[in-house]
Amino acid sequence: MRNALDTIARLGLGKETVTAHSVPWAQLRFQHTQALRSALADRYAHTTANRMLSALRGVLKTAWKLGLMSAEEYQKAASVESIRGETLPSGRAIASGELVGLLNTCNHKPLDVRDAAILSLLYGCGLRRAELVALDLGDYIIEEAELVLRGKGNKQRAIPVGNAAPALHDWLAVRGEAAGPLFWGLGNRNRGNRLTDQAVYTMLKKRAKLAGVKNLSPHDFRRTFVGDLLDAGADIVTVQKMAGHASPATTSRYDRRGQKARHQAASLLHIPYKKRTLGGE
Q1: Which of 57, 169, 194, 219 does the annotation list as catalytic?
Q2: 169 carries an active-site annotation
Q3: pTM for the full model?
Q4: Which residues pair with 181 in a beta bridge?
Q5: What are the chain's domains?
């Protein structure tokens, strides 16, 4: 927040050397915050600009709570609207051949069986990394073949394990029936301890290297999960609920069908270009 306020101070005062301490925040009114919004929109991506606006609203709220602004002054100054924009989801889709390659690096050792189950759930259920490592054995309802997830905002949702079930059951046969984390460490130092977010990321990096697959992240599996379901004709609201998105609008950002249609349309145009080589006639 401090860095954001320093940036706003430099924009507002037009000097590179000033900091947040140089600004009389309680004296800002709507015309000032609106001008700052315009300056941020001109210079930064909408996501970055909106983070700075959030910091601005926060310091104005503090000024009001301290009695330095009236409620009306605060409400008007803080009512500046967020900046609209749209960015493509980060990461990439994982090709089916890459998934095969990743799973083929997992052989028959306990660590391999565990990692194969993790890979299968990341793709087959679209789990967030935090959701995966938070799972306990009791969160798998074997009779329903569902996992009960605790997602963002402590919201729970149940998701079918689908075709990831065989890999999960193989891991459960290795893991045993002891209560505790669904996935735990198998090394000498972390045996029996819940896997961390970083451990999952490190595992993926290792498997990708073994498979000869270019770098990927846990979120790439989630992106591919959503995109593949939509490509296969699944209803977007159903996919939204499976992914735990707050709205279908979020899910639609991962919809590749429009992109494919654009590429197909572009290929319809004929360009009468002939190959040219240096020195050729």
Answers
A1: 219
A2: no
A3: 0.66
A4: 136
A5: 2-78 (no CATH), 96-261 (1.10.443.10)
